[in-house]
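Project outcomes to date are best conveyed with an example. Our students and postdoctoral researchers have been running inverse folding experiments weekly, and each run begins with a structure described purely in tokens. The record below, which covers 382 residues, was selected by the lab manager from last quarter's runs and is presented without edits.
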């Protein structure tokens, strides 16, 4: 049994498509098997909602009168990039204010814009014959901006490591606060709901795939940075960080509850982003992979007190991690998630609703992503 994108889209447009979330479909496949489930189900929706540091927004601020070429730009005192055209800028999620300990950064500016709040814009320029102005100090909202879109170079990581700390002092990391002597361990994946876990080799995800992005429609535009495939797999899924996605979407469609600024204690600013990818059930093999459960998805425990070359200490399933504790060499370790499974469920459920009732059709990718890719480290040369 096989289906095509157009056959599925015809059912969506007729509001006859059968849609399950990746969580819901697990029991269906256990009950009916992948072949029969694939005949019944047209789309499986996935979701993830967690910290995605490699994120940011392109903004076109519009021309003032007289005009200015902005080369030094501050939004709520957060530095934005001044090396684009006169009133274009990019603000990165991890960009900081002049007070780096202030707990506010680019991610918060993006969230505040999406929420409709006023943002303080202060910008300077060199002054030229065509851009005579040298300074502007005003307030803007998202409605005032011509163009505002998220362009996130690396989102929706395909699995990740479990972080712990074997040393005698507390470590503050992007994986949260790690207590000494392995008193806790943190992880960051939606597991059985995560987009790239349900389509581990990107058979249906590529350039042009339409997605749920921050509460609005978005698109996959390229392989994400740090995309790699040479990672050990268990049950067909990598046990560590592997593939990633570069994403784009219109901020004016988004909802601030799915784009949140974060201040991770002792580490710095990041941004939580809600991402949901619809997976068309074109055949039984895709259905089988979408039915993977947390019991079958594994991640590796690593010691984050080691700055480099962190060997895998042990391997645990996401069912074990979500139980609240794991055991390592007779020691019980408390576990907690850096991503929100509740948020991931909301993303997958809302995307399901869009497909069932709002005619959110599926795009067939126009470009497949690499089947094999390794990463290079930064070489220091003199």
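After processing, the design step wrote out the following sequence:
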């Amino acid at each position: 049994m096989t289906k095509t994108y157009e056959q599925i889209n015809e059912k969506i447009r007729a509001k006859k498509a059968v849609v399950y979330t990746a969580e819901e479909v697990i029991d269906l496949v256990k009950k009916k098997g992948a072949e029969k489930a694939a005949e019944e189900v047209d789309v499986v929706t996935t979701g993830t909602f967690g910290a995605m540091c490699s994120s940011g927004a392109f903004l076109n601020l519009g021309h003032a009168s007289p005009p200015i070429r902005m080369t030094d730009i501050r939004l709520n005192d957060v530095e934005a990039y001044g090396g684009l055209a006169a009133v274009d800028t990019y603000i990165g999620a991890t960009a900081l204010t002049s007070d780096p300990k202030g707990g506010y950064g680019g991610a918060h500016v993006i969230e505040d814009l999406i929420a409709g709040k006023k943002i303080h814009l202060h910008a300077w320029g060199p002054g030229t014959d065509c851009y005579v102005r040298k300074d502007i100090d005003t307030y803007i909202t998202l409605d005032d901006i011509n163009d505002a879109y998220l362009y996130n170079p690396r989102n929706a990581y395909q699995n990740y490591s479990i972080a712990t700390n074997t040393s005698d002092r507390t470590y503050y990391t992007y994986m949260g606060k790690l207590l000494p002597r392995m008193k806790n361990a943190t992880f960051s994946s939606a597991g059985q709901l995560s987009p790239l876990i349900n389509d581990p080799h990107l058979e249906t995800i590529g350039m042009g795939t339409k997605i749920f992005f921050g509460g609005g429609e978005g698109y996959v535009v390229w392989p994400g940075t740090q995309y790699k495939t040479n990672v050990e797999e268990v049950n067909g899924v990598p046990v560590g960080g592997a593939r990633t996605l570069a994403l784009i979407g219109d901020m004016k469609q988004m909802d601030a509850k799915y784009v949140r600024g974060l201040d991770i204690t002792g580490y710095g600013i990041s941004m939580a982003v809600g991402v949901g990818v619809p997976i068309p059930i074109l055949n039984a093999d895709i259905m089988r992979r979408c039915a993977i459960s947390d019991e079958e998805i594994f991640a590796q425990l690593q010691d984050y007190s080691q700055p480099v070359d962190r060997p895998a200490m042990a391997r645990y399933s996401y069912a074990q991690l979500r139980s609240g504790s794991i055991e390592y060499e007779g020691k019980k370790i408390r576990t907690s998630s850096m991503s929100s499974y509740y948020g991931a469920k909301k993303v997958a459920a809302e995307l399901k609703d869009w497909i069932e009732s709002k005619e959110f059709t599926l795009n067939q990718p126009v470009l497949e992503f690499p089947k094999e890719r390794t990463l290079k480290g930064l070489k220091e040369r003199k």
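The chain has two domains: 5-52+151-357, 62-145. The longest helix spans residues 24-40. The training component of this project remains on track.
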